[in-house]
């Protein structure tokens, strides 16, 4: 199926006047005839617009999945609704990446928490003991 809007450099919400002038400027007689038949009558245009929307959505879905036509289809009518592959990361994949990072940081914290907690407690205990020892030593030497 041809994308008549794309081939006539129009948008799907183009006015009747814009369509008629684009069809009149079209150098390809077969395309001009198709456009006059499909876009000229209101009921045909409505049906084409519904189909155009569906096929465009399918093209976007194919691009999102990384599916494109092979090189021998490029420039052909079958390629009108194909889009280049969309390599953007999906929201699901982004969420999975963020959760995985949080879990790895938490696991790292749990792994090192035990030894560091023991070192901290030993250091605090030694400092308190040293402070009492100095206080007692200074108290005995003064008295």
UniProtKB/TrEMBL annotation:
Q: Which residue spans traverse the membrane?
A: 116-142
Instruction: Respond yes or no to whether keyword Transmembrane helix is given for this record.
Output: yes
Record key words, sorted: Membrane, Transmembrane, Transmembrane helix
Q: Does the keyword Membrane apply?
A: yes
Tell me what this protein is called: J domain-containing protein
UniProt source species: Vreelandella alkaliphila
Organism taxonomic ancestry: Bacteria, Pseudomonadati, Pseudomonadota, Gammaproteobacteria, Oceanospirillales
């Amino acid at each position: 199926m041809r994308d008549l809007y794309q081939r006539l450099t129009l948008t799907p919400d183009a006015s009747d006047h814009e369509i008629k002038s684009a069809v009149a400027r079209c150098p390809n007689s077969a395309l001009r005839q198709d456009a006059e038949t499909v876009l000229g009558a209101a009921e045909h245009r409505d049906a084409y617009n519904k189909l155009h929307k569906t096929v465009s959505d399918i093209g976007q879905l194919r691009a999102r999945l990384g599916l494109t036509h092979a090189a021998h289809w490029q420039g052909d009518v079958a390629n009108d609704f194909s889009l280049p592959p969309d390599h953007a990361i999906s929201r699901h994949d982004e969420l999975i990446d963020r959760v995985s990072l949080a879990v790895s940081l938490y696991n790292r914290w749990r792994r090192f928490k035990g030894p560091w907690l023991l070192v901290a407690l030993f250091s605090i205990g030694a400092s308190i003991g040293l402070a009492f020892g100095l206080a007692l030593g200074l108290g005995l030497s003064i008295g």
